[in-house]
Design a protein that fits this description.
Elements: H1 3-29, H2 33-39, H3 46-57, H4 60-73, H5 75-82, H6 87-94, H7 96-105, H8 111-119, H9 122-155, H10 159-207, H11 211-221, H12 237-247, H13 255-258, H14 267-298, H15 308-316, H16 319-357, H17 363-384, H18 392-416, H19 422-442, H20 453-469, H21 471-475
Keywords: Cell membrane, Membrane, Transmembrane, Transmembrane helix, Transport
Transmembrane segments: 6-23, 44-64, 70-95, 123-145, 157-179, 191-211, 238-261, 273-299, 319-349, 369-387, 393-416, 423-439, 451-470
InterPro entries: Na/Glc_symporter_sf, Na/pantothenate_symporter, Na/solute_symporter, Na/solute_symporter_CS, Sodium:Solute_Symporter
């Protein structure tokens, strides 16, 4: 255990708790507990909006799984990762003002509120809530595992002990602070992620003797590490271009990202967030994945790819600096966990409990249920994460694909196509979910494309066909 590495991390966690306590004051003074706890009273400025989107999207996959995959596949994975640069731009440009205006008109606090008001269907609400719980559970498990593995590397404790420390730290301040605590800590975390990425990239290049020496070394190990097709030449042009649907355009359909487009203060804040968010995501994605490739020349032979990032950090930086830089992946993981935890909690409490079980609960009852639900979810994930997968990035990408296949068309068509109706939305959501699970389990990457492509295309066709055929029925 290296105390110089641990001190910056401890300071970082203490800062989170302070933010959670300060944010809890807003909950106590707010006129609407639900608006404040789940949406921060829609008062997010441009910089905070950009950083909370960056921090939410920049998960454990970006800082732990992504560099690990780049370590195995080479520069081709950096190319693949760069397709994510447009994420913030697409989300805010596609959803943008229209989504914010309509969500305010509907008084929508969650994405499911928007879908329910747009389609006037209980089945849309139920399918949406169930989808969020199913797919985001796998996402949260991935983040829990990433956080635990990071703490395991830093603290030198067992994986189970590290998992317990991480889970307790996250749960305390999310339960206390709600969305506002998540947004403010996201901003701090986004800044740490950006600074940590730049510092580590520079240190890695220096440790490897410069980019030319590192590339020469990688070429000697395996020339395909420098090719656009990956070390085993499995990343074909068709797969890479189709992957862009998963991590670029398709991100519009991620509830944890879309809900942020409901929380900004005004149009100026949104435009500022687009610019800042795109630049910051670009730097982080390029930097972290390139570090993963460069690490192969500096510390070859790492068996568990998910440990590449902490190992190379402690190798190329002095202990105190490594502690600061390792706060970046911890920031990414914690911010994603926080956001997703709030989202799943809101799906259960607001969309299912208040929507169908108790339609007029007291504020005290809502608070009790919210805190109880968030705690139970956290504990459930803790137990599910005790036996982690070999490479957590695949668990996270499964979650991404499933949510996109379910939500992307009901959101976009609900905003921009007046003929879209509840029958089309229900058919599209069921088709997207069913096909995605089928292809992922039994026929992954059909025709050389990423698994998400066919479910998204089919759910679009089904949405249009069913909406047109039920046009008269929907009017009645």
């Amino acid at each position: 255990m290296n105390i110089q590495v641990i001190i910056p991390l401890v300071i970082f966690l203490l800062l989170f708790f302070i933010v959670g306590l300060l944010a809890s004051r807003y909950i106590k003074s707010s006129d609407s507990f639900i608006q404040e706890y789940f949406l921060g009273s829609r008062q997010m400025g441009g910089f905070i909006l950009a950083m909370t989107m960056v921090a939410t999207y920049g998960s454990g996959s970006s800082f732990i799984g992504g560099p690990g995959a780049a370590y195995n596949y080479g520069l081709a994975w950096v190319l693949l990762a760069m397709t994510q640069v447009v994420t913030g731009y697409f989300v805010l440009m596609v959803l943008g003002k229209k989504f914010a205006i309509i969500s305010r008109k509907y008084d929508a606090i969650t994405l499911i509120d928007f879908l329910k008001a747009r389609y006037q269907s209980n089945w849309v609400t139920i399918i949406a809530a169930v989808s969020i719980v199913i797919f985001l559970f796998s996402s949260m498990i991935a983040q829990w595992v990433g956080g635990a593995r990071l703490m395991e590397s830093i603290l030198g404790v067992s994986y189970t002990t590290a998992l317990f420390i991480f889970a307790v730290s996250v749960l305390i301040y999310v339960i206390i602070g709600g969305f506002r605590a998540v947004a403010i800590t996201d901003t701090i975390q986004g800044i740490v992620m950006l600074g940590g990425t730049i510092l580590l990239l520079i240190a890695t290049l220096i440790a490897g003797g410069g980019i030319e020496n590192i590339m020469t070394d990688l070429k000697q190990q395996n020339p395909n590490l420098l090719s656009p097709y990956g070390a085993d030449r499995s990343l074909t042009p068709l797969y890479i271009s189709s992957f862009w649907i998963l991590v670029g355009v398709g991100v519009v359909g991620l509830p944890q990202i879309a809900v942020r487009a409901m929380s900004y203060k005004n149009a100026k804040a949104m435009h500022r967030a687009i610019l800042i968010g795109t630049i910051v995501i670009g730097i982080i994605m390029f930097g972290m994945h390139l570090i993963g490739v460069l690490a192969r020349a500096i510390v070859p032979g790492i068996e568990n790819a998910d440990t590449v990032m902490p190992i190379v950090t402690m190798k190329v930086l002095p202990a105190w600096a490594a502690g600061i830089v390792l706060a970046a992946p911890m920031a990414a993981i914690m911010s994603t966990v926080n956001s997703v935890l709030i989202l799943v909690s809101s799906a259960i409490v607001k969309d299912l409990y208040i929507g169908f079980i108790n339609k007029e609960p007291t504020i005290k009852k809502v608070k009790q249920i919210s805190f109880f639900t968030t705690s139970i979810i956290g504990v459930a994930i803790l137990f599910l994460a005790i036996h982690p997968p070999d490479l957590l990035i695949w668990l996270n990408l499964f979650s991404f694909g499933g949510l996109e296949a379910v939500f992307i068309w009901p959101i976009i068509m609900g905003l921009y196509w007046k003929n879209g109706n509840k029958y089309g939305a229900i058919a599209s959501m069921i088709t997207g979910m069913g096909l995605y699970i089928y292809f992922d389990r039994f026929y992954p990457n059909p025709f050389g494309m990423h698994t998400v492509v066919i479910p998204i295309l089919c759910s679009l066709l089904i949405f249009i066909i069913v909406s047109l055929f039920t046009k008269n029925k929907a009017i009645k």
